UniProtKB/TrEMBL annotation:
Source organism (scientific name): Kalanchoe fedtschenkoi (Lavender scallops)
Enzyme kind, highest EC tier: hydrolase
Assigned keywords, A-Z: GTP-binding, Hydrolase, Nucleotide-binding, Ribonucleoprotein, RNA-binding, Signal recognition particle
Catalytic reactions on record: GTP + H2O = GDP + phosphate + H(+)
EC number(s) from the headed UniProt entry: 3.6.5.4
Cellular-component GO terms for this entry: signal recognition particle, endoplasmic reticulum targeting
Gene Ontology terms, MF aspect: 7S RNA binding; GTP binding; GTPase activity; protein domain specific binding
Region (Disordered): 382-409
GO biological process: protein heterotrimerization; SRP-dependent cotranslational protein targeting to membrane
Chain ranges of the SRP54-type proteins GTP-binding domain: 269-282
Protein name: signal-recognition-particle GTPase
Family under the similarity heading: Belongs to the GTP-binding SRP family. SRP54 subfamily.
Transmembrane segments: none
Length: 444
């Protein structure tokens, strides 16, 4: 099982939460320690692990209780979502040139599977209806050119090759010209690897890149090398500029460190993964599926998602009911206005009510300022006046008294009273339920 060790390492984290009612700062300490250990053992780089653990901890403590969902299930969901983000969130598609041919330059150290990937990628694109041509540019490893020719024959894709005594940049130039002549859609160039990074390899790649002006420069890295793979992606990107990585040998007993570190460490996405030696064993890298495989808890994830969805709906309906049923007196007004002032956190829920616009930070600040003024005036009202705003609407004398007691002008009090009635109407309008008699009375 892929990343089996990581999966079982994380499992012990969930197990520590069995029997708990909510996630707290205290009860996540042990599980977070397990998560940290599991990631480090999977060979995820330390800074990445630190950031990950911190983000998950913060979210775990802040997460609200969802009815019917256990804390361990909630933590699974949080970890899943953060794993997806860590791996780049969305799938990162191959980019194709506006006018063909699209040129894909492959780079990588020796033995990572670069030559195999060359053919696999052509096979993958051919299935999508694209015509491909391979350019054999690995003049460093004697057997590589023959190897590519054999693979090309297997998948019926033409291979452009020259003798091993030619310069890769020259081969690239002539190969590209050949592809253009043949109206090929995608040209994939294999290049020479080395056992480790050296200047000769980098210079060669720079030359080839200059000649080809490729749409994609993909570094092939071996999943077995863990966080070292992420470091390589970073280095190659700084040296020659790459567009992404291809992670090979995910079928082996790799621990997961490469898949989890590459994007976060290098800023470059993994675009494709190799999961075996056969030509069909190359596929796009889907962060969400990868996270799902690591956790091995698809059913828990979809259960928590459903529960969250239900809760969001109930939240919104709750608020809607409150607004609808409120007689909307000054007590409600105060509550409602205070809520608006807190809308930094409320805007999520408000945004879910159809017709209610999102609240901007400036609106929140304004609301806080005017809340202070309004509170003063509402405090000067009698309990009866607060419950029956009509009393204030009907009586200038009452408004005058409120103004005097709160140290505001009569005009300000009148405005507040008018505002309350406007708010009643506006809310009902927003919810699409116009009640009869919900009009704004003229103040006497
Ligand atoms: P290069 O030196 O980078 O060109 O590496 P090769 O393409 O020659 O591959 C080296 C070895 O790794 C070969 O035996 C391949 O069959 C093997 N290989 C490549 N990709 C994968 C993969 O995704 N999974 C497994 N299990 N083996 C792979």
């Amino acid at each position: 099982e892929m990343f089996g060790q990581l999966t079982s390492g994380l499992e012990s984290a969930w197990n520590k939460l069995k029997g708990e009612e909510v996630l707290t700062k205290e009860n996540i300490v042990e599980p977070m320690r397990d998560i940290r250990r599991a990631l480090l053992e999977a060979d995820v780089s330390l800074p990445v692990v630190r950031r990950f653990v911190q983000t998950v901890s913060e979210q775990a403590v802040g997460v609200g209780v969802i009815r019917g969902v256990r804390p361990d299930q909630q933590l699974v969901k949080i970890v899943n979502d953060e794993l997806v983000k860590l791996m780049g969130g969305e799938v990162s598609e191959l980019v194709f040139a506006k006018s063909p041919p699209t040129v894909i330059l492959l780079a990588g150290l020796q033995g990572v599977g670069k030559t195999t990937v060359c053919a696999k990628l052509a096979f993958y694109l051919k299935k999508q209806g694209k015509s491909c041509m391979l350019i054999a540019g690995d003049v460093y490893r004697p057997a590589a050119i023959d190897q590519l020719s054999i693979l090309g024959e297997q998948i019926s894709v033409p291979v452009y090759k020259e003798g091993a005594d030619q310069k890769p940049a020259e081969i690239a130039k002539r190969g590209l010209a050949e592809a253009k002549k043949k109206n090929i859609d995608v040209v994939i160039m294999d290049t020479a690897g080395r056992l480790q990074i050296d200047k000769g390899m980098m210079d060669e790649l720079k030359d080839v890149k200059r000649v080809l002006n490729p749409t994609e420069v993909l570094l092939v890295v071996d999943a077995m090398t863990g966080q070292e793979a992420a470091a390589l992606v970073t280095t190659f990107n700084l040296e020659i500029g790459i567009t992404g990585a291809i992670l090979t040998k995910l079928d082996g007993d790799s621990r997961g460190g490469a898949a989890l570190s590459v994007k976060e460490v290098s800023g470059k996405p993994i675009k494709l993964v190799g999961r075996g030696e056969r030509m069909e064993d190359l596929e796009p890298f889907y962060p969400d599926r990868m996270a799902g495989r690591i956790l091995g808890m698809g059913d828990v994830l979809s259960f928590v998602e459903k529960a969250q969805e239900v809760m969001r709906q109930e939240d919104a309906e709750d608020l809607q009911k409150k607004i609808m049923s409120a007689k909307f007196d000054f007590n409600d007004f105060l509550k409602q206005t205070r809520m608006v002032a807190r809308m930094g956190s409320m805007s999520r829920v408000i945004g879910m009510i159809p017709g209610m616009a999102k609240v901007t930070p400036a609106q929140v600040r304004d609301a806080e300022k005017s809340l202070k003024i309004m509170e003063g005036m509402i405090e000067a009202m009698t309990p009866e006046e607060r419950e029956k705003p009509e009393l204030l609407a009907e009586s200038p004398a009452r408004r005058k008294r409120v103004a005097q007691e709160s140290g505001k002008t009569e005009q300000q009090v009148s405005q507040l009273v008018a505002q309350l009635f406007q708010m009643r109407v506006r809310m009902k309008n927003l919810l699409g339920v116009m009640e009869s008699g919900g009009s704004i009375p003229a103040l006497n």
